[in-house]
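S.,

Sequence below, as promised.
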Amino acid sequence: MISSKSKKHIVQLLLLVFVGLFCFGAATISAQEQPTQGADVPQVDEYGVPLNASIISQIETPDGVQTVTEIPVQMDTFATSGIPEGQPPAAFTNYGNRTDLRLGYNTANGFGAQRMYLWFNVAASGIPSNATINSASVSIWASDSGGNMGFEARHLSSSWGEYSLTWMSNRPEWGGSLGQGVISAGTGQKTADATNLVRDWVSGARANNGVIVIGNEGTAAPFERVIFAREAANGLYARLVVNWTIPVDTIPPESTITQLPQFSRVDYTVSWTGFDLGSPASGIAFWDLDVSTDGVNWSQWIRGTTNQTATWQGAIDGLTYRFRVRAVDRAGNVESWTRNTSQQQTSTTADTVAPTVGLQSLPQFTYDPGFPITWTGADNRSGVRQYEVQFNVNGGAWQIGQIFQLGDGQHTRTATGAVNGETYGIRVRATDQVGNLGAWSNESFTTVYTTPPYPNARVLPFIPPNHTAGPPGISNDTTFRVTWSIQVAPGTSVVDQTSLVYSCDGGPWTSWQAAASGTFANFDSTANTVGCSPSTVTHLYRFEAAGRALYPGNVTRNETLTGQPESFVVVDPNGDVQVRFYMPIVYGPPGALTANQGETLSIGDASGE
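The prediction came back faster than expected:
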């Protein structure tokens, strides 16, 4: 007698889903009836058992595709307990290569309790995890004529091997009960329901390690049932037949092409996306793309791509290229080219020609620290996006001055911070809206003259007539000659109209000549007495001159009087002045220029633009 405790530790291995009653008698067929054969001719093992599952039938239904799949047993064996349980050799014998499977209790051979193990490779059967399992049944074939035998089926929770399993070793762990049933009397096919277990195996809710079948192991009236093993090589092997449905995706996918800009360069990227609307969605398999230059006649560009971007190369300037996309899903549904043209089509015109810039020539000389820069830019397609203005100093390296976000047309910007005596070069180039970078414009140069302020008129030191020795600057005559000079910047000319002012004895500056011509004039001290001290006949006169010059563009510039004396004369009609010593006034050359190589020219917006 085998205890219930022993039974729980003996059985393990392949699990077949016998959910509900494993009623081998529920659908008994005559012994002459042969097992169902599939339409496919699968590869077989050395016993003639198919190595793979086969499709028995397949039909399309309103809900999808209904398939009946037959899965042959891949491992089958049994284990014996020995009498008493655990007695060698039966308890340590592997029966994986026998042609029969045994259930129940055998005393004649000393087998004792006998338990059957089965495993079906459901994972490789081609049934997807989202399939609906309509029904499943397991079939075995009895070779004996024994009577009805009750049984219990359990799933196995660990793996096992057909040629290593014994009652006492290499046994899988048991799982929960799958139900009880009866193997009907007599030979032939015995079938039981396995729907729930197959559902668990397919969905992944339960690991598929096979099943163990435990028969009537009573010792009071022992008997056994014998089942054909796959090693019998007679085609009567155990099999699992599954009826399952997979929903079919009948709705075409939808794609969207990314809209291109109005203009593009010679090479540009086309991109697209898509999604499948099927329920369940089979997913997008690939995309097709066409190209057209007139929107009517389309040519194949790309076929069967799984990428979502592609580069169009070699566009011809001014030509408009149109692209369209469609998607095909894994169920074979093909999107129409015209499903939604606003989503599926895009166009762009090729702009492959760079913009041009013409720089207005600068004057040879500039007389202010700031000067205007004027240029005209144009692009034949997309239009100018920006300009880059560069400068150099005295022929040195070109430096970035400024970048302006401006379009086509004429533009003026002002350069400031120019240094006296330096020659500045200017050049400009443009970039259009699609990124084509144009060539540099013509180069233009200007030399800056700003210090001292031009024109520069100076009253010269007074030297008395016939002077040979002694201090200059003293006149014993009340009328004497005042001389002056005037310098102007290169590129300008002197206007022969010099203004002269005087100050007597520290009095206010007073106009003497408003527009004197030439470079000298006689000064009558008796007629120009504003500010002179009345208590003496000796007076000190100071003089300053302001010149005029004509600049390019017929512009006259007037020098500004500063109130600083440039020369002086002591009028001493009685000869009373006695000079103990004197310090001559030393004048530097008017208009001396200094160069500064370290400056940075600033180029900014002109007013009004």
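The chain has a mean pLDDT of 87.

Coffee later?
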